[in-house]
Structure formats: structure tokens, C-alpha cells
Amino acid sequence: MTSSNPLREFLVSRRAQIEPESVGLRASPVPRRRPGLRREEVAALAGVSVDYYARLEQGRIGNVSDQVLTAIEDALRLDPLEREHLRGLVSSGPAKPRRSRPIKTRVRDSVRALVEAVDPVPALLQGPRMDILAWNRSASVLLADFATMAPEDRNVARWLFLDRSTRERYPDWEEVATSTVAALRANRDPLRPDEALERLVGELSVASDEFARYWADYRLFKHGHGKKRLYHPTVGVMTLNYETLNIADSAGQFVSTYTADVGSPSEERLNILLSWSQELAGADVEEERYGRQP
């Protein structure tokens, strides 16, 4: 899944997302072979020659001035994350890929203890490839029983695209799925191949047409904060706030927590769900300790 020209792949994907009419261009009498802007239109909007922009897409330009890069970023309507990504690709030049990043991820005991300690707030520890590295009891109740999954299946992207039940668990499944793929894209460094990530992307592209389509869109996303709707058969739909806590010196690990607005119906439903599951867990412990009563 590694592109031989990641700069071209990115720029082509960005201009394909822009409707010509949205930037003041008249509808062309000649049908377009591809959606979005043509090279010459991006060049005109950025104030550079068509030849210069074509050579930039092909990776045949050396140093690019900040002024020119800013003009191209503005023409393509790039957001801050996309601008950072573009500058990384341009400054990298045609250098050969560096050594692969290590595949194994180490979780500090203190971070694992933190995830456990915040219970009953549902919390997950994830790696940059969306691997689920640690979770607490409440996260298992709210999302899935990760302990019963095979270790290789404990990955948010695999779970979303290969487990059909997630489409019921997330009423806004497509939004969640596209953001997850975009986060994988943002964490992929074309000049520092990650064998585990490339393997994951390859497997999911074959197994899921939706994943392959979202990956080709080349969207970028960084987990931050916001709201997600989740459905649980016990209490129904809840609107929850998610927060992302980046873990220092961890090679990209982050904790995701889920809470509800104070006093909201979702808070009541979440509390009922977690209290009910805790009662069941307590009953199971008692049964195991004393044996089933006649």
C-alpha cells in the first residue's frame, strides 16, 4: 500500500475534492474525465505556471518557497493538518524510505493503571495504528468485550469494518469509520514505512470495499474531542463526549474517555448501564465463591 509518489497521491486527492464552481470557475462545456479541479486550474488559483505545478505533483521540484506553498495550500483549501502534511511531503523530497518503525508496542504499567483507575469512566488506550492496548471494565460494557477477542483483532479499524455489529453500536457508523481511516492516514509516514500498518491497510482494503474507498480519499484526522452517539441494547442510544489524552514518550499512544453531559438523559442511561453491569459482575463473583443456590 506504499505509494511511489506520496506527494502526487496527496495533491491529486485534494484537488479531486474541490468543485470548480465553488472556487468561482465556470462550468466547462467539455465533460471532465475526473472530478474536482484540473492541474491548470490549481496552478491558476495559486498563481504559478502549469508546468511548475505539474512538476511539483510529480516530485520534480527542489526547494519550494513558503510563499508558493501557502498559495497552493490556499488554492486547495487545506486545513491546518493537511498543510502540515503537505509541508512534510515537500520537505522530504525524493529521499529513500528510512528504516521501518518497530512493530511491537510497549505499554507502561503506570498508563495501564491509569486506565483502570478512571473506572467507572469508560477508557481505552490505543496506539497510532488504532490497536486497543488496554481498557477498563466500563469500556468493555459500553463498547465490546475486548478480553474475548483474539489479540490481533483488538484494533478499532478491524472491529469497525469486519464486525457488522458495530453498525448498530454506532448509529453514525460512516462518520466514525471515515474518521478512523483518516486517523490511520495521518499517522502514516510515507518515508518511514510501518510494516504493521501497511499490512493492516492491505488486509482491510481487500476485506472491505468501504475501507478501500475511504483510504483512497486521503482524508487526514487527529483524535481530539467531540461527541459520538452509541447504542446499547440495554438502555438505547446515548450521546457521549469523547476526550483524547496523548501519552508522553509512548510512540503515539492515547487514551480515549467517554462521559455524558451532566443531568442529561444520556448520563442517566450511562449510569444505569454501568450500575446494572456492576451488579451482574458482583452476582457472578458471589456465585463463583459460594456456588449456585438451589
UniProtKB/TrEMBL annotation:
Recorded GO MF terms: DNA binding
Protein name as catalogued: Transcriptional regulator with XRE-family HTH domain
InterPro entries xrefs: Cro/C1-type_HTH (IPR001387), Lambda_DNA-bd_dom_sf (IPR010982), MLTR_LBD (IPR041413)
Domain HTH cro/C1-type stretches: 32-83
Pfam name, any one: HTH_31
